[in-house]
């Protein structure tokens, strides 16, 4: 950077590289003709960028003034172009397209030039950055060799690629050919005849190499190794052999010229090879039910093609027969499925299985009838996922000479179709097998069973559930409240459907918390019970809960449910009600027993014995008799007996007595009769009662009022007798007394120890010092004046 002396801005020089101040700056004074100034030089020790700008500045004020700049480019010499290839396009207009790999980037402008030499050299210059070129039809000949190479040039050097020598037609990629017709030739088993052709623009090519690929109708993949056909003349039919008999094939072809690239595959066409009778054996698996001995055997037979079996056509039926040569009489089962159920007599030892198509029937496969017996089973059966479409089954072998092998059976658990059951026979020396196929799918459950085969039967199976891949369940069970009490809640739930489990359920967990957010749960639960009891809860409190289900592939939380405990425990209420009922029942029972034990006393308290005059009779009372119906009095200081001291009886009309001639006969009122009110006879009579008299007067009672007092012997002389008027409303008219059923006269009851003399109540009318008083009292009771009272002294 040169700065003249007359520059008014100079105060110094500064170098910038990409706006960064550079070091190692040196300034030298120079002088030339008519000019003098300063020469500033900079040295850059390391430049790692591919591109940069270097500027020279003079200082006078800030910022500095740029007086000069230069662009710096860094790069590499061009490498030789690699992988040069050319491809001929036979579609009009025909061209030869070449391309190459430029190699490492030089970071510098590089020029590429394509050179071709046939009889003379041709040069094609390409724009920068272009690494391919299409040579026109005038620049090459189909059947003549041509040499092609590429040269690269930049500021630091040049390089040339390796020359490519080729015939343009051998570099041509043909259009996809056409399969015109495919058919089976008569008497050519396992062969198909194929007619084909090239595209219309390439029909001038006479000889090509052809390749064929095939697949059966039920297959999804084409054959891995196509069938090559070398040097095939144009439009000439070809034959493909060594195919399976009676199979429908899809066929495609592709072509090329010598070592040229292959064309795309042609359209697909189908044909069926000639059929033959099936050949080979069928693998079988028989399961015999264990029923009563007198019943025939129920057999379920499964089969599948063995590795050597060839159906040689479309199978029309499988026949299970008891005879080697199947006849209609001996046939047990005819089906198109791969399994069959039939019955056998107990003595059967073998059956025969054969397959048939339109061309014939295969040789029968002998199947021995082995019954399932309670023989030893294998142990430690374990299933591991091998990949998403296969499972590895392992078990512990049985070391016994009578073991002939094992049978591994598997089926999808979400479907019960027996046609989905698959099996495999395993050698006795193996303890593992890999089951695979299109039916093994991830996230679906499979039941895998291992049966040991013995010389004389089939052992017990060991079955496990397995998944080729697991993930979290698709759904969770719904929590249901079974019982709510004041301090605990019982929850239940149902199992998740198999199609939604997506794995083996390993645990259920219940999480619950109260209104304050205090978590109370989270423990593992037993899988089989599907119930849990939340204990130690508060009364009348709300809780939230949810269930989490975990499998081998993840976990899923269920929706929250709200729970609320009761204010009072129903069980406690039931206990209280039961206890109260039992207590009340006991009280009633005790009360009833007491009532029965004191029946007479209670009856006297609530229903006192009131004499019924119509149904009563007179009897003599003594002291003991008078005390029977008197309840004990505990409040009295001294106990005193109560004696009968006075009786007031009805009087008969006078004309009733006069009719008897002034004499008193045996009066029915004097006879002893039981009263319903007093319980004993109230009169004592020395005369015997006749049965006829008792029958006609046993319910008659005289009208009377009974008064109880102290004994007559100790009664004060000045005490007057008290008489009570009867409250009875029964009429005592003379007309009624004159009825034949009424008594005609009354008489006093003789006292024990007296002469038994009869005293008429009329005698009280005579003069006497002691009876006048009585007569005066009777006048106050006109209805009772016919009665006479005698004092009866109680027996002591």
UniProtKB/TrEMBL annotation:
Pfam families reported in the protein's UniProt record: fn3
PROSITE patterns to which the protein is assigned, alphabetical: FN3 (PS50853)
Record SUPFAM superfamilies: Fibronectin type III, Immunoglobulin
Subcellular location: Membrane
TM region(s), chain numbering: 570-596
Gene3D superfamilies associated with the record: Immunoglobulins
Sorted UniProt keywords: Glycoprotein, Immunoglobulin domain, Membrane, Receptor, Repeat, Signal, Transmembrane, Transmembrane helix
GO-annotated cellular components: plasma membrane
Record's keyword annotation contains Transmembrane: yes
Family the entry assigns: Belongs to the type I cytokine receptor family. Type 2 subfamily.
Entry-linked PANTHER family: INTERLEUKIN-27 RECEPTOR SUBUNIT ALPHA (PTHR48423)
Protein's name according to its UniProt entry: Colony stimulating factor 3 receptor
Lineage: Eukaryota, Metazoa, Chordata, Craniata, Vertebrata
């Amino acid at each position: 950077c040169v700065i003249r002396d007359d520059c008014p801005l100079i105060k110094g020089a500064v170098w910038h590289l990409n706006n960064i101040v550079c070091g190692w700056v040196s300034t030298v004074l120079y002088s030339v003709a008519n000019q003098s100034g300063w020469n500033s030089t900079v040295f850059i020790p390391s430049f790692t960028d591919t591109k940069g700008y270097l500027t020279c500045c003079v200082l006078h004020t800030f910022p500095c003034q740029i007086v000069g700049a230069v662009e710096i480019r860094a790069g590499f010499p061009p490498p030789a172009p690699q992988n040069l290839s050319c491809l001929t396009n036979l579609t009009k207009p025909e061209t030869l397209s070449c391309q190459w790999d430029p190699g490492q980037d030089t970071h510098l402008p590089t020029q590429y030039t394509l050179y071709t030499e046939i009889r003379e050299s041709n040069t094609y210059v390409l724009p920068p950055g272009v690494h391919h070129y299409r040579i026109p039809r005038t620049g090459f000949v189909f059947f003549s060799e041509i040499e092609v190479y590429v040269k690269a040039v930049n500021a630091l050097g040049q390089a040339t690629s390796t020359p490519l020598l080729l015939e343009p037609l051998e570099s041509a990629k043909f259009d996809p050919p056409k399969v015109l017709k495919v058919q089976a030739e008569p008497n050519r088993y396992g062969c198909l005849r194929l007619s084909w052709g090239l595209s219309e623009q390439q029909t001038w090519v006479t000889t090509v190499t052809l390749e064929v690929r095939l697949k059966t109708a039920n297959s999804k993949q084409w054959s891995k190794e196509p069938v090559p056909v070398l040097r095939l003349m144009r439009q000439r039919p070809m034959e493909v052999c060594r195919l399976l008999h009676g199979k429908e094939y899809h066929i495609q072809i592709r072509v090329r010229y010598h070592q040229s690239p292959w064309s795309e595959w042609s359209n697909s066409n189908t044909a069926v090879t000639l059929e033959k009778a099936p050949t080979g054996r069928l693998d079988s698996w028989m399961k015999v039910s264990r029923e009563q001995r007198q019943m025939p055997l129920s057999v379920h037979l499964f089969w599948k093609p063995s590795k050597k079996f060839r159906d040689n056509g479309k199978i029309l039926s499988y026949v299970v027969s008891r005879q080697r040569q199947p006849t209609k009489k001996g046939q047990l089962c005819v089906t198109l499925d791969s399994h069959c159920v039939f019955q056998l007599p107990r003595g059967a030892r073998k059956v025969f299985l054969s397959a048939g198509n339109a061309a014939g029937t295969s040789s029968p496969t002998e199947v021995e009838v082995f019954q399932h017996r309670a023989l030893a089973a294998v142990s430690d059966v374990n299933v591991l996922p091998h990949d998403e479409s296969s499972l590895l089954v392992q078990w512990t072998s049985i070391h016994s000479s009578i073991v002939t092998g094992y049978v591994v059976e598997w089926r999808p658990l979400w479907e019960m179709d027996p046609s989905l059951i698959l099996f495999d026979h395993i050698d006795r020396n193996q303890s593992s097998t890999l089951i695979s196929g299109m039916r093994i799918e991830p996230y679906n459950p499979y039941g895998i069973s291992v049966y040991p085969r013995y010389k004389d039967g089939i052992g017990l199976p060991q079955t496990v559930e397995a998944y080729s891949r697991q993930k979290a369940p698709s759904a969770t069970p719904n929590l249901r409240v079974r019982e709510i009490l004041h301090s605990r809640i019982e929850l239940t739930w149902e199992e998740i459907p198999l199609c939604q489990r997506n794995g083996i359920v390993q645990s259920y967990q219940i999480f619950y918390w109260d209104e304050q957010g205090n978590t109370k749960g989270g423990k593992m639960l037993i899988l089989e019970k599907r119930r849990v009891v939340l204990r130690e809860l508060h009364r009348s409190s709300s809780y939230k809960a949810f269930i989490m289900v975990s499998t081998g592939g993840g976990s899923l939380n269920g929706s929250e449910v709200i729970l609320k405990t009761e204010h009072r425990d129903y069980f406690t209420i039931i206990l209280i009600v039961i206890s109260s009922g039992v207590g009340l029942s006991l009280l009633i029972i005790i009360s009833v027993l007491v009532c029965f034990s004191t029946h007479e006393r209670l009856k006297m308290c609530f229903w006192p014995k009131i004499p019924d005059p119509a149904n009563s009779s007179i009897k003599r009372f003594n002291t003991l008799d008078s005390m029977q119906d008197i309840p004990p009095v505990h409040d009295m200081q001294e106990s005193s007996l109560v004696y009968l001291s006075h009786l007031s009886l009805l009087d008969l009309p006078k004309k009733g007595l006069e009719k008897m001639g002034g004499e008193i006969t045996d009066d029915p009122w004097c006879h002893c009769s039981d009263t319903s009110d007093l319980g004993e006879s109230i009169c004592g009579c020395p005369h015997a009662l006749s049965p006829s008299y008792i029958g006609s007067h046993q319910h008659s009672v005289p009208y009377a009022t009974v008064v109880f007092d102290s004994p007559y012997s100790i009664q004060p002389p000045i005490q007057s007798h008290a008489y009570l008027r009867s409250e009875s409303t029964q009429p005592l008219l003379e007309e009624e007394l004159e009825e034949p059923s009424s008594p005609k006269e009354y008489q006093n009851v003789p006292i024990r120890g007296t002469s038994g003399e009869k005293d008429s109540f009329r005698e009280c009318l005579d003069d006497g010092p002691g009876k006048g008083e009585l007569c005066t009292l009777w006048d106050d009771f006109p209805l009772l004046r016919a009665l006479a009272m005698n004092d009866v002294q109680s027996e002591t």
